Amino acid sequence: MRKTAASGEAKVAGERSLLLGIGISSVGIGMYIPFSLVFFHHVTGLSLTVVGLVMTVTGLAGLAFMPLAGTAVDRFGAKRVNLVLYGIRALGFALYPFAGSLPAFAAVSLVTALADRSFGVVQQSLIGEVAQGSARDRLQASTRALQNAGMGAGALLVSGVLALWGTGGFTYTAWGNSLAFALAGLLVGRVRAVRVGRPTAGAVGPVGAAAAGSVGYRTVLRDRPFLGLTAANFLTALGYSALSVLFPLSLSTWSAAPDSLTGAAFTVNTALCAGIGVLIAGRVRRSGARRTRSAALGALLFAAAFVGQIVLGTLRPGRTATLVALLAIVVYTLGELVHSPSGGALSVSAAPDAVRGRYLATYQLSYSLAGALAPSLFTALLAVDGRLPWALLAVAALGAALALLRLERHLPAEAVHAEPPVVRDTTGRPVPVTAAA
């Protein structure tokens, strides 16, 4: 890595190619995620029921594959595994238009789902492999902004394709996705890791690479601070499911706000994430705040937004409901923009180099588990009272913030601080602090 004179922050070798690849692949994702069931129905010709069943089964299989992806990262390196997953996704979408039978669709869907579900683990590991210090926070913020912008652009692009060619355009969309993933893989291949090769036995961390191979996930399970960090993230991850799952349900079953507000909320969230995400993360990073504290601040903003939804559901302010709901969405999005870069960099930096893949596979399960539980949990609470799920999320976010603050002194200093904190010796010279404060 190198440092720029203007900012003093480390620049990753091949960073532009990495981010451009992420942006292009996000366009591909945006071209099919909003229409996933309909997309695969038209591409394969199978019924919606069959497509839904296959997607559910293969999605669950993909979750089970995540620990193996973490092991592969530790053995072969995140960059190599990342390129393999891009290749699998490119091949899968190229084959979808030819997978007209149930066995063929199930096979292609399974292989593609394994790559899709594991991609987050591998991408996070790649950030840890190619960046250090505050560069990790910057890449986290840039990645999230590009993902939001890319997915929005992809959704607009597929809308134009369908307007021109009708449902037959889904086939062109599948091939467009394949091309996007292939191009992204070529671009990401240009990024260079901080280290050449994987760490050897005796490397920094509780175990070296040789020991990691024999110990496996037992190393992660013995790291109680990291498990605490994962548990805290599960509480926050429930909140990340609120916009896509709970907000539309709450509007249609409890609040007096118009249903069209769902689309407006998604638009506001996407625009803010893409437009000011890097700016907000940069302000947080330059403030020198500890990652634990900035992630806790994000969780507190989540809690404030959820309390706003409780107020909306209690008062049901009629014409001003839209304004109150959108204000809550803005606060929610700010929480997302503050929490996501700091929380992501915190998990990457708390993971020892030799077993980073296993650590991050464990951490990413907190998102997957929260996403799997959210629909049934939210609907059950909504059936009792429309304010209950929001109250649960507010309490969970507050609990996450408290847990992050309490974990601060138990996590490695290089994880808590984006840059090593310094103290002054008796001569006034800065001396780096090597232990957590």
Provide a compact summary of the structure.
The chain is mainly α. 75% of the residues lie in helices and 2% in strands.
What descriptors fit this protein?
437 residues, mainly alpha, two-stranded antiparallel sheet, 75% helix, 2% strand
Structural write-up:
- The structure is a single chain.
- The protein has helices spanning 15-30, 36-44, 48-76, 78-95, 102-130, 134-165, 169-188, 209-215, 218-222, 224-240, 242-253, 261-286, 291-315, 321-350, 356-384, 388-407, 413-416, and strands at 2-3, 10-11, 422-424, 430-432.
- It is mainly α and 437 residues long.
- The protein has a two-stranded antiparallel ribbon.
- Strand 3 (422-424) and strand 4 form a beta hairpin.
- Helix 4 (78-95) packs antiparallel against helix 7 (169-188) and helix 6 runs antiparallel to helix 7 (169-188).
* Strand adjacency order, main sheet: 1-2
* Strand and helix order: EEHHHHHHHHHHHHHHHHHEE
Count the DSSP helices: 17
Helix and strand composition category: mainly alpha
Helix-strand blueprint:
Elements: E1 2-3, E2 10-11, H1 15-30, H2 36-44, H3 48-76, H4 78-95, H5 102-130, H6 134-165, H7 169-188, H8 209-215, H9 218-222, H10 224-240, H11 242-253, H12 261-286, H13 291-315, H14 321-350, H15 356-384, H16 388-407, H17 413-416, E3 422-424, E4 430-432
Antiparallel strand pairs: 1-2, 3-4
